[in-house]
Amino acid sequence: MRRPTAADAGAVARIKRSVELALHGESAVDADAVREEWALPRLDLDRDTWLVEDGSDVPVGYGLCWVETPPGEIVAEQAVDPAARGRGLSEFLLGLCEARAAEIFAGARAEDGSLSVWSHETDEPRIALYERRGFAHVSTFVRLDRDLDDTLDPPEWPAGIRVAAFRPGVDDAAVHAAHEEGFTDHPGEGETDLEEWLASHFAHEGPDLGLWLVAWDGAEVVGGIEAMETPAGAYMGELFVRGAWRGRGIARALMLQECAELRRRGMRSAFFAVDADNATGALQLHESLGFLPRRGRTLLLEKPFTAPEEGR
């Protein structure tokens, strides 16, 4: 076991991709996606990540522990090449993540917090491992897919609302503030300050600005959406609309505008991950646009942390 370096992004991507290929027959993970993960705010590559190699020095396992929402909301990941499973590597990496999470929590002096992990619903051994270690299911996420074909409707923008591509250095503060407001009612969405937000978005080559769309009402940012092209289709993410502008069709128009641009670029399909319990109606919106579940559900499991009582 060792710490990964920047040169290991491709190797980590291969491990993650092998897991998704075994589960779903396709994967959207590449080295750029790993580099983006490593640019997350509050992630220290030398303390929060691990790489496990086999006897031939080939990476077969990867672990990550990250403070999603300070001070005590922490998430962890363990990815093991299917060819190397059955040897205890997932539990070994989970133990490292749990120990690091406990260290972070103790250092933060928070009153309470949690460690969260993910598993596809069909990965019964992993779910059993999590439950054995004290994790309990708290949320369910669904990946929704659709073909970008002739059945797509054109976007219809409400009166007074216009859409434009994100302008770095000009729209930064306004879009960040609107993004934070748009996700205030979304459980588990980590808060970031402007500097962290920009660093995570513009790490390395940064996002495709032609696919980062911002909705405006006069001088007010009211919503936005991002997307990226992947080997498994276009990933659409970070869709948000501020509360005062919801219910006017802005989210629907943003999605359709994004789909139209992706189709113009030659992308044949798009996918989106949605919290099945999202109170804003995101699942219903996506399904109304023809996005359908094709890969089953992903479970979020959580184990709470509590600060020790004073004197103990």
Mind sketching the topology for me?
Elements: H1 9-24, H2 31-38, H3 45-48, E1 49-53, E2 59-69, E3 73-80, H4 89-108, E4 112-120, H5 124-132, E5 136-147, E6 161-165, H6 172-182, H7 194-201, E7 213-217, E8 220-230, E9 233-241, H8 250-264, E10 269-275, H9 282-288, E11 292-306
Parallel strand pairs: 3-4, 9-10
Antiparallel strand pairs: 1-2, 2-3, 4-11, 5-10, 5-11, 6-7, 7-8, 8-9
Helix pairs in contact: 1-2
Largest sheet: 11 strands, mixed
- Residue fraction in strands: 25-35%
CATH class of the largest domain: Alpha Beta
Count of distinct structural domains: 2
Compressed to H and E, one letter per element, the order equals: HHHEEEHEHEEHHEEEHEHE
Mean pLDDT: 90
Distance between the termini: 34 Å
Name the CATH superfamily assignment of the largest domain. Answer: Gcn5-related N-acetyltransferase (GNAT)
Which structural class do you get from the secondary structure elements? alpha+beta
**How many H/I helices?**
9
- The helical percent reads 25-40%
- Write out the strand line-up for the largest beta sheet, numbering strands in chain order: 1-2-3-4-11-5-10-9-8-7-6
Overall morphology? globular
CATH topology of the largest domain: Aminopeptidase
Number of E strands: 11
**What Rg, in angstroms, do the CA atoms define?**
20 Å
Oligomeric form: single chain
Quickly give the CATH architecture of the largest domain. Answer: 3-Layer(aba) Sandwich
The low-confidence parts are none
